[in-house]
Q: What sequence folds into this?
């Protein structure tokens, strides 16, 4: 009789476990919806990115200069390696000379030994968001730095939202989760083209910064200069 009393409880316990297991199926859909919801909120924060990039524009105009070279990203206005350090200092970012060269090489997408406006955004972003790696000293009282930090933090948070945990880059599938279903490939492919500068079907963080410039309206800054 005692054994009979236990059986209903065991059956109820199994039911609860099975019910929980059944709820695991739509997890990816729920996750995708959450990502889209968060991205919608990021749109409201784009003005902060715009402010940060405006600070960069002022420094870029101060330390950049006209040049005779042309490239896929330049129409003749850029920052040379020996001026990048001074530009960053103006923004409250002090970088050792050897690390300035490292940042320069990361940002010089087209390899022309000059940094155009959108490339300069990469160098500053890496220094602001990862100061330990580049042995950077940040002047947190500098008003330009405060604006830069706020804007780049939005970019970093957006990057972390789009890419999947454990990945070091964003894939086409990740963009589908944000911008549309797989049957809406045209829009997603357009976003991929904007961000995947080296066309290797993966978007790393420097490429993401570069592409975000177009999203917030700084795509044609070099043309204006």
A:
């Amino acid at each position: 009789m005692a054994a009979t009393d236990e059986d209903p409880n065991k059956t109820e316990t199994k039911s609860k476990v099975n019910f929980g297991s059944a709820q695991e199926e739509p997890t990816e859909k729920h996750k995708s919806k959450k990502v889209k919801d968060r991205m919608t909120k990021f749109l409201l924060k784009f003005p902060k990115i715009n402010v940060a990039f405006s600070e960069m524009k002022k420094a870029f105009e101060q330390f950049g200069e006209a040049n005779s070279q042309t490239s896929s990203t330049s129409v003749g206005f850029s920052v040379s390696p020996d001026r990048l350090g001074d530009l960053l200092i103006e923004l409250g970012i002090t970088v050792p000379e050897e690390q300035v060269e490292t940042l320069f090489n990361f940002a010089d997408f087209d390899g022309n030994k000059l940094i155009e406006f959108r490339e300069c955004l990469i160098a500053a972003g890496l220094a602001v968001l990862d100061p330990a790696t580049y042995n950077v000293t940040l002047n947190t009282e500098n008003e330009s730095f405060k604006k830069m930090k706020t804007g780049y933090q939005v970019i970093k948070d957006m990057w972390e939202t789009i890419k999947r945990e454990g990945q070091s880059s964003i894939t086409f599938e990740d963009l589908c989760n944000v911008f549309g279903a797989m049957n809406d490939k045209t829009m997603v492919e357009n976003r991929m083209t904007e961000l995947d500068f080296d066309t290797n079907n993966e978007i790393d963080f420097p490429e993401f910064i570069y592409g975000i410039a177009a999203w917030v309206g700084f795509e044609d800054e070099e043309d204006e200069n």
